[in-house]
From TrEMBL:
Example of a GO biological process term: L-arginine biosynthetic process
Organism domain of life: Eukaryota
Compartment(s) of residence: Mitochondrion
Coiled-coil annotated spans: none
Organism annotation: Phoenix dactylifera
Tagged with keyword Transport: no
A Pfam family that the UniProt record links to this protein: Aminotran_3
Pathway listed: Amino-acid biosynthesis; L-arginine biosynthesis; N(2)-acetyl-L-ornithine from L-glutamate: step 4/4
Gene Ontology CC annotations of this record: chloroplast stroma; mitochondrion
MF (Gene Ontology): identical protein binding; N2-acetyl-L-ornithine:2-oxoglutarate 5-aminotransferase activity; pyridoxal phosphate binding
Protein name: acetylornithine transaminase
SUPFAM superfamilies, per the entry: PLP-dependent transferases (SSF53383)
EC numbers on record: 2.6.1.11
Length: 471
């Protein structure tokens, strides 16, 4: 039997007030090659696997007539950008989803870390219906109460002095790119060529629009659309010395980093690393941008992921869970950054609409409660303990890592067969990294009993990985 070692964050990783065991590492004497594995037909991650058309035969369960009809219609009318799982979802309640045939699934995906309050939260539904019956959209030509109220709340519970709303995470990062360049031009108005370049990191994912795409490390996403925005340098995530050599005064406008990388494989920064970024940016006159689109808003057990490290950014981008499933993004900035932005420098027709902002207030009111966040921390620790207990003896499990309810299980083979088997068994999970990481980002309201159920299904389905090892 393989031995299991519990590795906690080093003392420098997070503040002493929150010295949580963030990483559980499995040391293995041998590694099984992934060469020759079956190419997965269905991707459970928007950013980690090559896209192929979904095929009902990739599932071990028979596909009903209604499911097949929906899939065939989708295939005939949509641009083929998504490799969807062969599953047609119809309704949801709490942490459970139901397909068109009435089959129940435990949702450990939360719409890719979006549905933090689960499905059909009564207070969220009430807020949406109430606002839909009052005022849905007016554009940013006018003021609206929900937008101003949400902005005020975000400022009150964060480092920020100012807020800009967008419609998605990639839009939030595009705004942050523009704000960083405008800040440098504003600060150095007399210089002919102010700083315009950016630093990003390996395994990063910041979005799919042209600017955010330029900050995303995987070449397979950038190459088909080149030339993307020039001036981005990628360095190894966590490499302090490489960062010190790379950042340059008068050249680097901003540094973009995820305190915990989601799509990249659930990798956490350390306090020393983020503090080095903060000091380096201050010395070089660059801005530090934290992308908390996936790891922010309570997912780590802190309202903001960076709070665990005691390092504050100049700009923070948000999106996924903020409006509980409705499209929203946000850029939070200091007054110093906001002073560089003038009327007309950026904008959006739909961003900050009354309906979406009123829904977001219902989400934020719940998530920011200390008792709610403490519950996330507790459940996150319990989930990792369960995974270690139930999966720790598997030769395929290399590491379980994460903070709060953003957890990754790194495998020594591709994860798709396990994802498919879990789905057939009524459990929905995602992949991350290079397709070899199971990503668990459930609704933050998930119960311990449901976590136990998820861990047990994963344990029962693990043997499917043995069938994918070449002889």
């Amino acid at each position: 039997m393989n031995s299991l070692q519990l590795q906690s964050f080093q003392a420098s990783s997070i503040s002493s007030a929150t010295d949580l065991p963030g990483l559980f590492r499995l040391q293995r004497a041998r590694r099984v090659s992934s060469a020759g594995l079956r190419i997965p037909r269905v991707s459970s991650c928007l950013a980690s696997e090559t896209k192929k058309k979904a095929d009902p035969s990739s599932s071990g369960k028979p596909v009903s007539k209604e499911t097949k009809e929906v899939m065939e219609t989708e295939g005939s009318v949509f641009v083929r950008t998504y490799a969807r799982a062969p599953l047609v979802l119809k309704s949801g309640r709490g942490c459970k989803l139901y397909d068109v045939d009435g089959r129940e699934y435990l949702d450990m995906t939360a719409g890719i870390a979006v549905n933090s309050l689960g499905h059909g939260d009564p207070d969220w539904v009430k807020a949406v219906v109430e606002q839909a019956n009052t005022l849905t959209h007016v554009s940013n030509v006018f003021y609206s109460v929900p937008q101003v109220t949400l902005g005020k709340c975000l400022v009150e519970c964060s480092f920020a002095d100012r807020v800009f709303f967008s419609n998605s995470g990639t839009e939030a990062n595009e705004a942050a790119i523009k704000f960083a360049r405008k800040f440098q031009r504003y600060l150095h108005a007399d210089e002919k060529h102010p700083a315009t370049e950016f630093i990003a990191f390996t395994n990063s994912f910041h979005g799919r629009t042209m600017g955010a795409l330029a900050l995303t490390s995987k070449e397979q996403y950038r190459l088909p659309f080149e030339p993307v925005m020039p001036g981005v340098t990628f360095i190894e995530y966590g490499n302090i010395e490489e960062f010190k050599k790379t950042i340059k005064s008068g050249k680097t406008a901003a540094v973009f980093v995820e305190p915990i990388q989601g799509e990249g494989g659930i990798y956490s920064a350390t306090k020393d690393f983020l503090q080095t970024l903060r000091t380096g940016c201050d010395d070089a006159g660059a801005l530090l941008v934290f992308d908390e689109i996936q790891c922010g808003l309570g997912r780590t057990g802190h309202l903001w992921a960076h709070e665990a490290f005691g390092v504050t950014p100049d700009i923070m981008t948000l999106a996924k869970p903020l409006a509980g499933g409705l499209p929203i993004g946000a850029v939070l900035t200091t007054e110093r950054v906001a002073a560089a932005i003038s009327s007309g420098d950026h904008g959006s027709t739909f961003a900050g609409a009354p309906l979406v902002c009123h829904a977001a207030l219902a989400v934020l009111d719940k998530i920011r409660e200390p008792s709610f966040l403490a519950g996330v921390t507790k459940k996150g620790l319990y989930l990792k303990e369960l995974l270690i207990q139930k999966l720790g003896d598997s030769q395929h499990v290399k590491e379980v890592r994460g903070l709060g309810l953003i957890v990754g299980i790194e495998l020594d083979v591709q994860a798709s067969p396990l994802v498919d088997a879990c789905r057939d068994a009524g459990l929905l999970v995602l992949t991350a990294g290079k397709g070899n990481v199971i990503r668990l980002v459930p609704p933050l309201i998930i119960s311990e009993k449901e976590l136990e159920q998820a861990a047990e299904v994963l344990r029962e389905c693990l043997p499917v990985l043995d069938a994918n090892i070449p002889n």
